[in-house]
Amino acid sequence: MRVFVTGGSGLIGSAAVRELLAAGHTVLALARSEASAQSLSSAGAEPLRGSIADLDVVRVGAAQTDGVIHLAFSHDFSSAEALARAVAEEGAALSVIGQVLVGSDRPLVTVSGTPAVDGRSSTEADPLPTGGPVSGRGQSVMAALALASQGVRSSAVRLPRTVHNEGRGGFAGMLVEMARRSGVSRYPRDGVQRWPAVHALDAAALFRICLERAPAGSSWHAVADEGDRVRDIAEVIGRRLQVPVQGVDPAEFGPLGPIFAADQPASSRYTQETLGWRPRHPSLLEDLEGIGS
Fold this sequence. Notes:
By secondary structure, the protein is of the alpha/beta class. It is built from eleven helices and twelve strands. The protein is globular.
């Protein structure tokens, strides 16, 4: 299968590109910069210069391939306005991809986060949130899944709050970088909130599986660690970076504060039982043991 991948040079995207190529697929990947294009070429993919804001380029990529894996998202979390722009940009790109694929029976695998459910781990049957700072992402994903009724084999991989590799990526990776900059490993409130996690290489395998055989309109959880306490995450970071560990007001994390403060464990039991996907790589806390000052 010739696959169009957006976000193919990022932490998850680069792993997905390698996973697809190893499985015998060919890859056309969106590249925002020359450095990204060179990295993709070195991996064996064909780069397509542009970003998800370049809707004409996105349309061409989707039209030239047998299926799409959408991973691109701006990681400018500096303000609520920047986050809103990123959500709107992604929604417009998904809409264009969907228009191209309607009536083709080609697969579209998109991405969202695992939802938070009071008192228990969320499952694949739980709906995505309709409120909060990134609710627009959920709405875009639901619109993509609804294309199942229009001849698109759409599916969604719900990623946990941290997708990691060698201490980088996701919310835990953000805590690492914040600790390096500030000299303090911080966590919101009392730190008993639980964050699910998955290794990027395991997540990449699930994206490939969904591309190949996920039913139309289905949602899946790429979760390996059901929920690590944020304080435990911060304590590993503090120990490895040799900095103090401190609980702080969630407001100190900017527009992501409400999400950082939420208890949001998630299960992938249904995904594992149904698709045969099995996480095989290090857990988040094991992975963070490899970081250094």
